[in-house]
Amino acid sequence: MESGFNGSVRKDQTKFSIGQFMKLIKTTQPKYLLLAMGVLLLVVSSGVQIYVPKLASSLVNHFSKGIDYGLLGKVFALFVISAIVSAIGGTVLGIFGENVIQNLRKSLWQKLTTLKVSYFDTVKAGEISSRLVNDTAQVKQLLAVTFPQTLASIITVIGTVYMMFKMDWHMTVAMVVAVPIVVILMMPIMAFGTKIGHIRQEAMAQFNGISSETLSEIRLVKTSNAEKQAQVRANNEINKLFKVGKKEAVFDATMQPIMMMVFMSMVFGLLAYGMHRIAIGEMQIGILMSFLMYLFNLIGAVPVIATLFSEMAKAAGSTRRVQELLAEKPEDFTKGIELDLAGKTLSVEHVDFAYEDAPDDPILKDVSFTAKPNEVIAFAGPSGGGKSTIFSLLERFYAPTSGSHISHVLNIVHSNF
Ligand SMILES: Nc1ncnc2c1ncn2[C@@H]1O[C@H](COP(=O)(O)OP(=O)(O)OP(=O)(O)O)[C@@H](O)[C@H]1O
Ligand SMILES: [Mg+2]
Predict the structure, then answer these.
(1) Are 45 and 194 within one domain?
(2) 275/324 same-domain check
(3) Domain ABC transmembrane type-1: where (predicted)?
């Protein structure tokens, strides 16, 4: 049941914590009134769904004495009302969820733009955009879709089973046994489908990564005569995609008939049992019809409840990743002094620098130079020698590290800016 959500979300070991989840939701200042309204409407719609089959059964039971048009009208009216109420409820929750995701994305984006350059060295752009796009969607999905639908489904199941027991307990037992068996049979099939989907997404991402990397560095590929390697590398990925695609094709083609077979067997079994009870005079025909309607209620509701935990597991990782990003320390924009640079000499003295991810591998060691206004200076050195790094330091994307000259250097670099 990947309802309307098709982003890729990596699973991790994070346990779902309702406290953490609600803490995150609170930061988006959600419109609780919309949430309450949406949930209420879904609950009302569940109530109607529980009540209609009972009404329909009286209608059918009276057929031998003619058609009760009043009752017939009522049944149809309730169908319409249930559909409308459910549609409005879904819309309200949808808008509520979109509002949450909007605020979440805005605060993530605002945070991102204020982070230090070094953050973007350590976290890949793809990872960040996945948080912005997929993780936020997962959080919204749980709050605005899974939770309300699960609540409505639980009410549907409890109400349906209660009504069924009141009507005919023999049939109820048959159904309460049959439906979970069918759902349990279906679960591994569906889980397998989801797994294949994930493998395909991963293979796709890998192929995407390799091809765009190669294409963006095509000049480098050409100058180093690496066309062959580039071909082999991408070919491997394309072959992997083919393998996954084959599996997916088999799965797609067989799943539908298997599901149909299992479902039809169940419906047939229950109908046959009901007919038998009618034939021996233990049950009225109207009851059988309402049981058929209740069957649809249960078939719709049970999988929603069954997938609650996997949805929560998915949202747990997303919640943590979004929270981590929101907790990153932004750059201090108020620190430092404003200086007019015009006509000033830029001097750098005894600067040592190593990137955070390789602190033992200093890129700059004891670098000193001065640049007077209008003076032309050239930085020469091998690729990877640290030329661009010097400019990153001058732009103050990074601060000089280690060495006894640090404060001294900072002062000098500082006061000349
Ligand atoms: N953001 C970073 N994080 C970690 N290491 C980095 C980072 N940027 C550069 N390096 C490493 O620092 C070293 C110096 O890189 P830099 O880009 O300053 O060299 P360069 O002299 O500008 O090279 P080129 O002539 O190829 O432009 C290289 O070994 C590079 O791998
Ligand atoms: Mg460079």
Answers:
(1) no
(2) no
(3) 36-314
Q: What six digits make up the tokens of 280? A: 């021996």
Using the mean position of ligand 1's atoms as its centre, give its distance from the Cα of residue 398 in Å.
13
| Number of domains composing the chain | 3
366 and 247 housed in the same domain = no
Tens digit of pLDDT at every position of the chain (417 positions): 333 343 445 556 788 999 999 999 999 999 999 999 999 999 999 999 999 999 999 999 888 888 899 999 999 999 999 999 999 999 999 999 999 999 999 999 999 999 999 899 888 888 899 899 999 999 999 999 999 999 999 999 999 999 999 999 999 999 989 988 888 888 888 888 888 988 888 889 889 888 988 998 899 999 999 999 999 999 999 999 999 999 999 998 998 899 899 989 999 999 999 999 999 999 999 999 999 999 999 988 988 998 898 889 889 999 999 999 999 999 887 776 676 777 777 778 888 888 888 888 889 888 888 888 888 888 888 888 999 998 888 888 888 875 433 333 444 444 333
Q: Which atom of ligand 1 is nearest to the CA of 390?
A: 18
Are residues 107 and 88 part of one domain?
yes
Alpha carbon of residue 21 to chain centroid? 14
Q: Ligand 2 centre and the CA of 409: distance in Å?
A: 23
Residue nearest to atom 6 of ligand 1 (CA): 355
Domain-terminating residue out of 272, 301, 333: 333
**In the block, which residue shows the tokens 């796709």?**
204
276 and 299 fall within a common domain: no
Domain limits at 161?
8-168+285-333
Which residues 6+ apart lie within 8 Å of 339 measured at CB?
A: 415, 416, 417
Q: Whose alpha carbon is nearest atom 27 of ligand 1?
A: 383
Shared domain for 357 and 212, answered yes or no, is no
From the CA of 394, which ligand is nearest?
1
Q: Which residue ranges have their beta carbon within 6 Å of ligand 1?
A: 121, 355, 357, 363, 381, 383-389
One domain, residues 277 and 289: no
**DSSP element (H, E) containing 353:** strand 346-353
